[in-house]
Write a structure and sequence with these properties.
Layout (H helix, E strand, L loop, with lengths): L1 E2 L3 E2 L8 E2 L4 E2 L3 E2 L4 E2 L3 E2 L4 E2 L3 E2 L4 E2 L3 E2 L4 E2 L3 E2 L4 E2 L5 E2 L4 E2 L3 E2 L4 E2 L3 E2 L4 E2 L3 E3 L4 E2 L3 E2 L4 E2 L2 E3 L4 E2 L3 E2 L4 E2 L16 H10 L1
Parallel strand pairs: 1-4, 2-5, 3-7, 4-8, 5-9, 6-10, 7-11, 8-12, 9-13, 10-14, 11-15, 12-16, 13-17, 14-18, 15-19, 16-20, 17-21, 18-22, 19-23, 20-24, 21-25, 22-26, 23-27, 24-28
């Protein structure tokens, strides 16, 4: 599936909304969309901005290996149900805005790459686990005012700037100069 121009889609009901492998060349808006039986964007390419503000995904949402080349916003989105959301191996090349998102189940950024200037998770409500294991985060990850009702995992993740996760010591990305000095010392 290929969307060449600006696209705006709302109220997607029925069987899974399956956009697997879709290419969105222009800006795309799913603002206030309701995905009543889940949303699948696995392997999709977002070539410009993507807006999911106030979208409701009732039975799971899957963005595994999706690539966001422009800014993306999930501000005030709702990921309902026990399935939660998966951004496993997704790439965010620009800013990612998840402010005030509500997640009922687990949300997974396992091996995701957040490369923009910011990844804003402020005021989010995480009802299940939050998984960043193996993720690479160049963006400033902001969790101010976020509420966590499940475990937070950051094992093997690298953060350019340590995130403000309460009670979590997230690993910082290694300094390139320090790595070179260690190699020479051996």
């Amino acid at each position: 599936m290929w969307f060449r121009r600006r696209s705006r889609l709302t109220a997607i009901h029925g069987p899974w909304a399956d956009f697997s492998g879709a290419e969105f060349a222009g800006p795309v808006s799913f603002k206030e969309s309701v995905f009543s039986t889940g949303a699948v964007f696995d392997g999709s390419m977002f070539g410009s901005s993507a807006a999911f503000e106030n979208a409701v995904m009732l039975c799971g949402s899957y963005f595994q290996s999706a690539v966001f080349t422009g800014p993306v916003s999930f501000c005030c989105a709702e990921f309902s149900g026990e399935a939660g959301a998966s951004f496993t191996a997704a790439t965010f090349e620009r800013d990612a805005d998840f402010r005030r998102a509500r997640v009922g189940g687990p949300i997974d950024f396992h091996h995701a790459r957040l490369l923009g200037n910011s990844a804003d998770f402020s005021l989010c409500r995480f009802g299940g686990s939050l998984e960043f294991s193996g993720a690479h985060v160049d963006a400033l990850a902001d969790f101010d005012g976020a509420r966590f009702f499940g475990p937070v995992r950051v094992e093997d993740a690298t953060f350019e700037t340590p995130p403000n996760l309460p009670g979590i010591q997230a690993p910082k990305a290694p300094d390139a100069g320090a790595a070179g000095e260690r190699d020479r010392a051996d």
